[in-house]
Amino acid sequence: MKRSTILAAGVASIACLVVAGPSWADMKYDGVTLNIASQNDQFAPVLAALAPKFKAATGAEVKVDILNYPDLATKTQADFVGHTKGYDIVTMDIVWSGQYAEAGYTVDLTEWIKKDADEIKVDDIYPSLMSALGGWKGKQVAFPFAGYANVLAYRKDLYEAAGLKPPTTMEEMVAAALKLTDASKKQYGFVANGAKGPAVAQDWMQYNAQMGGSILKDGKPALNSEANVKSLSVYNELFQKAAPPGAADYWWDGRETAFKTGIAANMETWSIGAAGYSDPSQSKVVDKFAIELAPPGAGLPKKYGIGGWGLAINADIDAKKKEAAWAFIKWVTSASVAKETNLGGLSSFIRKSQTHDPDVAKKYPFISVIDETFEHGDGEYRPRIPQYPQIQDILGTAVNGVLVGNGDPKKALDDAQAEAAKLF
Amino acid sequence: MSFVQRRRLFLVLMGAPAVIYVLIVAGWPLAQGIWLSVFDYSLLHPATRHFVGIGNYVALWTDPSARRSVITTVEFTVAAVGLELVFGMALALLLWRDERFERVSLALLLIPITVTPVAVGLVFRALLAPDFGLIGYYAAEAGLSIPRGFLGDPNTALGAVVMIDTWEWTPLMALILLAGLKALPAEIFEAAEVDGANGWQRFRMIILPMLLPAIFLALVLRTMDAFRVFDIVFATTGGGPADKTDVLMFYAVKQGLQFFNVGFAAAVANSMVVFIAIFAVLFILVVRRADRTARET
User: Fold this and answer.
1) Residue among A245, A254, A404 minimizing CB distance to B241
2) How close are the terminal C-alpha atoms of chain B, in Å?
3) Looking at chain A, which residue has its C-alpha nearest residue B63?
4) Domain shared by A215 and A312, yes or no
5) Which stretches of chain A sit within 8 Å of chain B by CB?
6) Given CB atoms, is B240 within the 8 Å cutoff of chain A?
7) Are residues A99 and A229 in the same domain?
8) Three-state SS at A57
9) What is the ipTM of this complex?
10) Do both A92 and A51 map to the same domain?
């Protein structure tokens, strides 16, 4: 081989390396392993499936530990308190924001977001989600990852047959639920969670907010306010007159089954599950249902419940890992990755560009409802304060007690208020 | 060193690993539990930890929901273990002299024991659901349960949970008692038959007194377990309806792992140890007395 040929080959090789430079440079996290504690929601397997792609792009290995809710809470809490650095990234439930912020468990991302605002396209993210899924009193303890919208799923065939229009107010929804109930035909107008614990507490708090109630007043519990007592009376009336008999014992699975099997005409639910009603393998109401905005009480402002998860970085881990974790969060929440995962069926949105994307709209016909919900999102109907777990537990017992006939709403909420006041 | 001393040293050394093991896995956590229980200690606010003496124990007895949990747990334990003893004894007696079905029956009996309690709870929750469940639907239709179902009715929920526990653990009781029955000497029964003792007399005068050690073992094992019931309650009722199935272990887990009040949770757990010890002492006294009575007659 001539010297000139060898030289040309050498130059070409270097040129290739230079051209390939960016990806070479991106491999700066080679040898870094990120351990993620993930809630066992629809996004968990997606995170695991994305891990090899992130490794290929950056060199960082991502391991996803998929946990159920109580395990996630316990293991991450133990990790934070013991400073054991077991997890680098944690999926954070919306209601943990206050607790994380006050205890300083996770990295405050405020400055990082400002620094990378253009790359992240911050303006594309719904402000309501940025605030609810990690924002707390000026701190950003997690980055929004999976936004869920509370929506109304209803049986359009039954509404049409009864000559009813889709409800735009809570009062209309209650009237329709009562009208569409015919227990002799096993047809019920309403279903919601009734089981003691988080199930009934979370569902009631949602309806309560829509009816103008509130759990806190000036930062202190106000469980027995007039509006709350009234909303619990309405919730109870729906359970006694319009819900399947077993609903007082329903968790989320029971509630969803009731709607999918066609025995319930109205149900408020998280948008993430709504796509499943069109799947004939798990639903008997394919083509018979529609998704609408969760109706607020008549005359009340548009305020829709939002929930979901943020991604938080453990404050104890070293700087290199924090950097890699931030790179992962930016990547996994980017518009391109989010579009790919949502077209794959993830159904979790945080970006306006996603809810206005024609391809996404084809897959999710109700995407405009999600968009409107996020635009007027209320992430505070379940108070995101450190005492939330106890308040949820107190309400979970009190509301369930009313539904099973163990007390009247006023007395139940008076007792609950007395118990909750001790926490402050 | 004399032979006796050397022998004693040898025995001490042989027993030492076991003692050290018990101290590490049981003694140390128990001591830690007692130590934690005298502090107001929340993992959410570790810096505010402070000594409260018996404050957590006092709070346990003054908190109405905790008191209710104690009563529910005792009701559950007495009912479940009592039913399991009766059914277990009946099963053991049926299988004792049976040769045709014994092996198959023993294999079948092992099935409920091997299923994890959470799975048992979830399966029964589905079975008892009044709107979809195989048992719950027909029971509600037939008017055997209220429309909300057995688990949704404050009057029947605890009973339903007791029945689920009984389904799972009666076989264990039966197996322990069957092993006890098999160990009884046959000559005594032959002699009793010659003396003209009928079935009931043989059971009351011979089987029951001689089976007391096995009964004691079965009762203690099951009481310890039943008093700490959590999984079945968690999977079926979550402590509801209202607070009707809120057992003590559920309360302790909630305090420790949901609210992270580890000091208070430790006090609840220690109280449970005391309760179980009281049950065990009661069993010992009853069994001893029965044994003495049997010897005297």
Assistant:
1) A404
2) 52
3) A419
4) no
5) 70, 73-74, 77-78, 81, 99, 103, 194-197, 199, 244-246, 248-249, 251, 254, 257-258, 261, 263, 386, 389-390, 393, 397, 400-401, 403-407
6) yes
7) no
8) helix
9) 0.70
10) yes
Distance from CA of A290 to the nearest CA of B (A): 23
Q: Decide if A273 is inside a domain.
A: yes
Give how far B212 is from chain A: nearest CA, Å.
Answer: 42
Instruction: Give B63→chain A minimum CA distance, Å.
Output: 10
Look at residues A342, A360, A375 and tell me which one is the last residue of a structural domain: A375
Neighbours of A385 (CB within 10 A): 22
Q: Are residues A255 and A370 in the same domain?
A: no
d(CA A328, CA A403): 45
Measured CA to CA, the distance from residue A192 to residue A261 in angstroms comes to 14
Describe chain B by its helix, strand, coil percentages, rounded to 5. 75, 0, 20
Domain membership flag for residue A142: yes
User: In Å, how far is A280's CA from the nearest CA of chain B?
Assistant: 19
State the residue for tokens 């930062």. Answer: A219
Would you call B152 and A248 a contact, using CB atoms and an 8 Å cutoff? yes
Mutate to test the interface with A, among B141, B146, B258 (most CBs of A within 10 A): B258
Q: Domain check: are A158 and A280 in the same one?
A: yes
User: B255 at the A interface (CB within 8 A)?
Assistant: no
Rounded to the nearest 5°, which phi and psi values hold at B273? -60, -45
Within a domain: A1: no
- Would you give per-residue pLDDT tens digits along chain A (424 residues)? 444 454 444 444 434 433 443 444 457 899 999 999 999 988 999 999 999 999 999 999 999 999 988 789 889 988 998 899 999 999 999 999 988 888 899 999 999 999 999 999 999 999 999 999 999 999 999 999 999 999 999 999 999 999 999 999 999 999 999 999 999 999 999 999 999 888 999 999 999 999 999 999 999 999 999 999 999 999 999 999 999 988 998 888 889 999 999 999 999 999 988 878 988 998 999 999 999 999 999 999 988 999 999 999 999 999 999 999 999 999 999 999 999 999 888 889 999 999 999 999 998 999 999 999 999 999 999 998 988 989 999 999 999 999 998 779 999 999 999 999 988 8
Helix (H, G, I), strand (E, B) or coil at A379: coil
Count of beta carbons in the 10 Å neighbourhood of residue A262:
17
State the CATH number of the domain containing residue A58.
3.40.190.10
The tally of domains found in chain A comes to: 2
Residues of B in contact with A258 (CB under 8 A): 131
Same domain, A354 and A392: no
Q: Are residues A161 and A296 in the same domain?
A: yes
| Pairwise CB contact (< 8 Å): A197 & B240 | yes
Are the C-beta atoms of A300 and A212 separated by less than 8 Å? Answer: yes
Chain B contact set for A261 (CB, 8 A): 132
Yes or no, beta carbons of A249 and B45 under 8 Å apart: no
Instruction: State both tokens at B141.
Output: 């239709």
Give the residue numbers spanning the domain of A261.
Answer: 149-304+380-421
Q: Is residue A342 part of a domain?
A: yes
